[in-house]
Design brief:
By secondary structure, chain A is of the alpha+beta class. Among the domains of chain A are: about 120 residues, Roll (CBS-domain); about 170 residues, Tetracycline Repressor, domain 2, CATH 1.10.357.20. Chain A has 24 helices and nine strands. A four-stranded antiparallel beta sheet of chain A has the order 2-3-1-4, sandwiched between helices. Chain A has a three-stranded mixed beta sheet with strand order 5-6-7. The termini of chain A are far apart. Chains A and B meet through helix 3, helix 14, helix 15, helix 17 and helix 18 of A and helix 3, helix 14, helix 15, helix 16 and helix 17 of B.
Amino acid sequence: MTRRLLVLVETQDRPGLLSRVSGLLHSLGANVATSLGYRVDGRARILFMVDARLEPGELAERIREQLGGEARVEAAYLGPEGAELLAEFLEDKPGLVNLLELYLDPPDLLDALLRLPEEARRRIYRVLSHSSLARIMLLADEATAQEIAGSLDPDHLARALAALEPDETVDVLQKLPEKLRRQLLGRLPEPLREEAQRLLRYPPDTAGGVMTTSVPVLRADDTVQRALQELRSGEHDVRDTVVVVDSQGRLLGLVTVDQLLRAGPGERLGSLALKPRATVEPEADREEAARIMLRYDISRLPVVDQEGRFLGLITIEDMAGVLTEEAAEDIALLGGVEAPKERYLKARVLDLFRRRILWLLMIFLVESVTANIIKGYEDVIRRIALLAAFIPLVMDTGGNVGSQASSMIVRALALGEISEKSRHDIVYVLLKEVATAALIGAAMSAVGFVFALLLSGGEVKLSLVVALTLFIVIMMADVIGASLPILARRLGIDPATLSSPLLTTITDIGVTVIYMGLASYLILGR
Amino acid sequence: MTRRLLVLVETQDRPGLLSRVSGLLHSLGANVATSLGYRVDGRARILFMVDARLEPGELAERIREQLGGEARVEAAYLGPEGAELLAEFLEDKPGLVNLLELYLDPPDLLDALLRLPEEARRRIYRVLSHSSLARIMLLADEATAQEIAGSLDPDHLARALAALEPDETVDVLQKLPEKLRRQLLGRLPEPLREEAQRLLRYPPDTAGGVMTTSVPVLRADDTVQRALQELRSGEHDVRDTVVVVDSQGRLLGLVTVDQLLRAGPGERLGSLALKPRATVEPEADREEAARIMLRYDISRLPVVDQEGRFLGLITIEDMAGVLTEEAAEDIALLGGVEAPKERYLKARVLDLFRRRILWLLMIFLVESVTANIIKGYEDVIRRIALLAAFIPLVMDTGGNVGSQASSMIVRALALGEISEKSRHDIVYVLLKEVATAALIGAAMSAVGFVFALLLSGGEVKLSLVVALTLFIVIMMADVIGASLPILARRLGIDPATLSSPLLTTITDIGVTVIYMGLASYLILGR
């Protein structure tokens, strides 16, 4: 794989250094895209951007060997890994970003910015081109977008935003505070302003929030020739499909570029347009739209209003990014944290704290019930202290079985393998989980019995309590774990919200009641 | 949103029933795409496929009202929800699938098949068209693909597979046992067989495994006109891009259809071709390829060999499906289950058991350490039985803090916000987590102290032990939870593998040592 690398060389300045290193890079099969250097404290610091097949570590090693002792050579892939090198290079001379900008993709530039001190970052914002600025704000989290907005005057900002497509402009505006948003809207050039105002109505997590309006829209009696002209203009974001509407703007169908190429130039679009497999309304959940696109292999999904008027297209390119975000949100939820809006590198400790503490307190509250239950059996524990030794074991097993079952079902729901609305599927899931849990319960309680027997030095009754508890707990945790995600979906909640921490806590209470109750009854007979 | 619905009507047969219901549907704004019926036990059972804006529940309700008392009317969206209705309709007359096939997308048909008894399923396989069969095998899990293969003779199967693109044929072949695969390969028509043999070399989780080879490939001295002709043929999977190679087949660049439309018909492709932003080798991990495509907004990523020869393109359409699969795999891993290869509806109980038991036994083994530790403090517990009451509380809090931290970091790594290879990022993560954990620890130990004081009726020393344990445990769990995913990535393991169940167990041991040790030292002074 050829990938772009950053190579940073820092050494005693000497004549011909730049061409020397360039030559070395060339001899190692690396194509130099650009290089840039300056002097600090009598030493030369040069940054190379190269396309190479060698691993960064090996490339750096080879150059270091050739340059000899005191030279510092570092290399990394452009991207998150190389962000540190780029930041280091820019920290002393932020103005140089102007010369690198052309060779850097916005995500790479943003990654470097986030690793710079704020002061250097702000200096860079002021010298960046409009288009880089706009792209970076589009990629950035809210905190960074607001920092950029705060470093520049509104006219400058508005000109930068005008470099974007309307739907992208809106994505940026939605990261800014209300007041600034209005200021900027007023400064946008005309067709863009109106379009942006219209799009601002749709929240980012809806179909309307992810659609693009930069699409060629034509009438049924327009010709193929006219449609090709429109695509040729290269003005639209979508360049492989034209949308055909009637005189009221209602969607008639889509025509793809290969259909156009096959048709005669004079043919009318009305006769070519194919009704799409599905449409969505702008208020629909974007995840719902994603599911439909993936299921039916739709790469362009039209968004229409109640009256069937065409509003925009959702492209699979945009959706791929959305899917990744949604997956990342689920990962956070499954771990018991609300997904942060800002990047980790920008998140403030206090925000992280706030986002996590509520959940922990809630779990603490529920878990305090177990403490109360155990307290009620204080005398039992005083008499059989060894009981305490098995508490973590039975609890953990219950929690694990529950989260296994729940993650299997969350997964099957996410992939559309089962439906929360199908009676058949619900019955099926329950039967299958009961059967699986029975097998797991039998195996684990056998293991638990032997282990308890060994640890307690042959206490049969105690070991029976452990084994029996394990069996009951496993059955219970599995069924609850499998049911919760289905229930969540039926209630319209993201199944990942009822995540393993919550599940664990619920089963913990059950475990305590069963374990202490059984112990007290079977061993002490009361 | 207009979506396709299934409506099943079952009622006393009477003349004009079909047109009566069709009329009703029409008056409710539902367009009937097709309808099909048969008689069972003197009753008529009719299935309608309609495009409607009404919710299925409401639509069914309205029709039921109009038809009167004894009619059974059910409606559901086509898809996983409607699969049950479709299965019910087909169960009595599997042969009718022939008439429905045209109106059904393969994923919808597959969902219904999986909800039918095996016998009916097999009868359906035998009457389906080649192209439906092939598409269904492409979508199906291994178990179902093998069931289909087992119901048909190899010649029939090979003809079905020939309806697919070469990369799709290979995806199906990879689901079948080695012997059958070889049989089928031998029966494929010629250019397809060679192509399939070549593609079979790449495992499904590599770039080579997800690329398509159905791409127009042209030379640098070919003209724009020639390229447009090629696209016009509609023979290729990729219809908006042509690949330009040299006489050795080495990749020179890509030309998009809108470039072609703008250029003159006689222009040479060599002068239009743009070098791609990145390329991958076929052996590269498909997740790596996905990351690059998303980061740089690449919708067509070329796959080339060591010598730079063009092998195929990865399209963002295909990648979107891969991303969903990978996310689902992570969800399973985070819950402590290896992601199953078969659909949940096809998974056998014994397989589910096998997939889960190993993990549970491992966790049991580790957790048995905590039991041993607590046993060592048996006399301490005998004297202060209330100690046992707080064990679940402190353990659970530790586990939750750890999984919060780990899910934040897994998420940041997945989104490329931080890199496991950057020293800056690692130091930054550790500092930020220590700070956050200190805040969380302070808050939770204050809460814990008060709670313990209340529950114990004013035992200050015991409450101090609980509070202190909470603080230490939270610091420890957070730092371990944040470090594990970074460590996993550096070792080349999926961070989701070191999932919360494992993390919980590790922290449990730490918690036990700290809690029991502190209690014994602070309360009993030894």
